[in-house]
Design goal:
41% of the residues are buried. The strands form two sheets. Strands 1, 2, 3, 4, 5, 6, 7, 8, 9, 12 and 13 form an eleven-stranded mixed sheet that branches. Helices cover 37% and strands 19% of the residues. The longest helix has 29 residues, at 2-30. The protein is built from ten helices and 13 strands. The protein is of the alpha/beta class.
């Protein structure tokens, strides 16, 4: 009788473990966490190098905006109203904040090539030239070809530079240079169903046409999310190969890009247990700011804890967050509900006002430039 009771208990425990494992598996698959959860767990077991004792920590913050005035609409008047609100409200709130160098926050507008509107870009360019940010390249495309993509990127970069005075040229080659975010996250044809891109060798074309760095990731919970997370690394395209940026060569002090490589600058991706459901199901922290995911003190802390840095320079931490800032919902959170103020207040409290730490508000291009500077430095 006692043996039978013991066997029954063991069986019940085994069933409970199996049920729990099945539930965990279901949650992971429902959020596409299978693409990156292994890397997250590996990072917990093997943490990144800590900031050297006594070293001053520098935190570089970049707000990379998927800035789509025509997002969800073809109404020109609505698109212009959206941008007009930015022109009116952004300077008013940004002027109230400063980083450790006394600089106000700056915004990086990744503007979609397919939404080109000459007057709107003049307005955004004017805001940037007044010291409030910079413009980079964004693109949504589907069922595309390599030749058409090449033509689209070259034409848009040329227009931004020569018509609007944006972007910049490589002083050695004269080629227009820019940073990139892929619409719908499908960089290098990375969606399993092949939608929202279509070009397997996209990384090669980006490098060829003047792109120096990509800021698309993280994309979780999308199924385009890469295996590598919380990293700054080089990826290289391979003809006929999709999602070539799934992994790559980590950027290290003294080791800059090799021919054909594209710099990948990722934003924080981790699990937020404190703000999850019932303390049992964590929220995915993908560094996105939206009406449903406003900035909080805990989130700002998590971004820094991800420790995104160049190997050999752990005291320089890079935080890149993203939003779709030209939609009514996002603007409501950012402007009307105090999202910008809350974000900058927490960044300043946690990184500017703490001993041994400095906060730097930077554009996407300035973040790229700092990473390049560290990687081209001679190891100590």
């Amino acid at each position: 009788m006692e043996e039978s009771r013991t066997m029954s208990i063991v069986l019940l425990l085994a069933l409970a473990v199996l049920a729990f494992a099945a539930a965990v598996h279901k949650v992971i698959r429902s959020r596409n966490m299978q693409y990156w959860i292994g890397s997250h767990l590996a990072a917990l077991l093997h943490p990144k190098a800590a900031v050297p004792a006594g070293a001053h920590r520098h935190v570089y913050f970049c707000f990379a905006d998927h800035y789509e005035p025509y997002g969800g609409t073809s109404d020109k008047a609505m698109a212009h109203r959206r941008v007009a609100q930015w022109l009116r409200d952004y300077p008013a709130v940004a002027d109230r904040h400063r980083d450790s160098n006394g600089r106000k926050p700056v915004h990086s507008f990744f503007y979609p090539a397919e939404e080109y509107d000459e007057a709107l870009l003049d307005d955004v360019a004017g805001l940037c030239k007044a010291g409030y940010g910079d413009v980079e390249v964004h693109l949504h495309h589907d069922n595309d070809t390599a030749d058409n993509l090449r033509q689209t990127l070259n034409a848009f970069a040329d227009t931004l530079h020569h018509r609007h005075g944006l972007l910049r040229k490589d002083p050695a080659t004269g080629q227009i240079q820019w940073l990139f975010i892929h619409g719908n996250w499908a960089l290098d044809n990375s969606r399993p169903d092949g939608r929202w891109c279509g070009v397997d060798n996209e990384l090669d074309i980006l490098v060829e046409t003047g792109c120096v760095a990509d800021m698309t990731m993280p994309s979780a919970p999308s199924d385009t999310q890469t295996r590598r997370i919380n990293s700054i690394y080089f990826a290289k395209g391979h003809a006929g190969c999709r999602k070539s940026h799934d992994d790559g060569r980590p950027v290290k002090v003294g080791q800059w890009a090799q021919p054909g490589e594209l710099l990948m600058i990722q934003g924080p991706l981790t699990l937020n247990w404190r703000e999850g459901k019932f303390g049992l199901i964590p929220r995915i922290e993908s560094s996105e700011l939206s009406l449903d995911a406003p900035p909080t003190a805990h989130r700002v802390g998590l971004w820094g804890q991800c420790g995104i840095s160049v190997e050999g320079a752990a005291e320089h931490v890079f935080i890149k967050v993203h939003t779709h800032g030209a939609t009514e919902k996002s603007m409501r959170m950012l402007f009307e509900q105090g999202g910008f103020d809350a974000l900058w207040q927490q960044l300043e409290a946690q990184y500017r006002d703490q001993p041994g730490t400095s906060l730097h508000y930077v554009t996407a291009w300035e973040m790229y430039s700092k990473i390049r500077e560290l990687a081209q430095a001679q190891p100590a």
